Structures are given as structure tokens and as C-alpha cells.
């Protein structure tokens, strides 16, 4: 990529050359990233794969591609730059950025003396896990509230689901706490 401030890891293998088919696989699994001319093949493939992944989560592919693009950035970027580098409409990227912001996957900022809004991928995704956990906790409480009113197999099913999701919440909280402790120790 040209002006993306993306630097490879010291031990990383060199990225593939950019080509018109950058991001496509021999089996046709990945499609090229719109406006991919400044991306290496590996970068374009990553951006496309993130688009496909997030599409499976119910978000537009453009939103996932924007997230992949922002994950590869070393500093915040404005909509004009995104439009130029991704080759997508500014309005669509604005919607995608707001969707990512609502999921707490990106944050917005402004530069002193400028009205332009910059976006960057957040590095503290443990926050997203904890926000998701709050929703899961409420889901678990709702399941548990149905146990006393249900009968027979339905009661057993609700109790089992409530127990499963309660364990999920506990394990996620433990995972985040352990991860934060490892990061603090390093």
C-alpha cells in the first residue's frame, strides 16, 4: 500500500505484489477489494476476508472491508482518504464507519482546527467482549425468569440454556481478566 503507514512485522514474509486480481484466490473464494490498486495481494485478501466474515455476522460486506482496512492502519484516517483508497462511495463508508462505531470496533476523533472526522480501529476489544457480556447476562436473567413458569421439557430446556449462558458470561469475564493480567505483566 502506498501511503497507509502499514509496516510489516520484522519477521513477516514480504507481501505479494499488487495486481488486478489482488485478493482473489485460485478457487475464486475472495474477490478483489474495490480500489485495491495501492494494496498488496495479502492486504487486499485480508480486507476482503474481513468483509466476508462480518457479512456472515449480519453486517454489510462494505462494513467488514472498512474494518479490515482500518485494522491495517497505523493511524486514524478520514473519509476522503478511505474513499480514495478503498474506491467506495463516501456515503457508504460513512454508514459503515458509524456501524463499526456502534459496535465499538472503531472510534472517531477530530484534529485540532479541523472539522474532519478521523476513524481508527480500537485496540481494546476486550471492552467489546464485556459489553457483549452485559447483553448475555440480561439474556441469561430472562431465560432464568422463564424457568418457574415453564413446565416439563420446556422448563428443563430453559434451565439448561440459562446455565449454559451463565457459564459463557463467567468464562468470558475470566478470559478478559487473564488477558489483561498478561498484558499488564509484559
From TrEMBL:
Residues 1-36 are annotated as: Disordered. The keyword RNA-binding does not apply. Residues 12-24 have a biased composition (Low complexity). Keywords: DNA-binding, Transcription, Transcription regulation. The keyword Transcription applies. InterPro entries: HTH-GbsR_regulator (IPR052362), WH-like_DNA-bd_sf (IPR036388), WH_DNA-bd_sf (IPR036390). It comes from the Bacteria. This is ArsR family transcriptional regulator.
